[in-house]
Amino acid sequence: MNRPPDPAEIRAKAEKLNQFGWLLTIDTLAGFDITKWDLVLNQSYERTIIKLLMNRERMDYQKRYVETANTR
């Protein structure tokens, strides 16, 4: 589920987040709430992957929507 960074992410130095590895994914799935990390970790692999795919599709859609709206 890796994708190349876009130019804005490169300028913002998104690679600095790489130091946190998989913890960043857990934190994102937990809504940035450390008290919910265990809830995320206890989910099935399949459910977690589906959620990550949904999040990615939602982000990609929002990006496409903004780009389309800005070209009007």
The percentage of residues in β strands lies in under 5%
Give the termini separation: 31 Å
- Overall morphology: globular
Please write the string of helix (H) and strand (E) elements.
HHHH
Number of helices: 4
Low-confidence stretches: none
The main sheet comes to: none
Instruction: Give the averaged pLDDT, no decimals.
Output: 91
3D structure, described in words:
This protein has 72 residues and is mostly helical. It is built from four helices and no strands. It has helices at residues 7-11, 22-29, 37-41, 45-70. The longest helix has 26 residues, at 45-70. The model has no long low-confidence stretch (mean pLDDT 91).
Key terms for this structure?
4 helices; mainly alpha; 72 residues
Strand and helix layout:
Blueprint: H1 7-11, H2 22-29, H3 37-41, H4 45-70
Question: What would you say about this model in short?
Answer:
By secondary structure, the protein is an all-alpha fold. The model has no long low-confidence stretch (mean pLDDT 91).
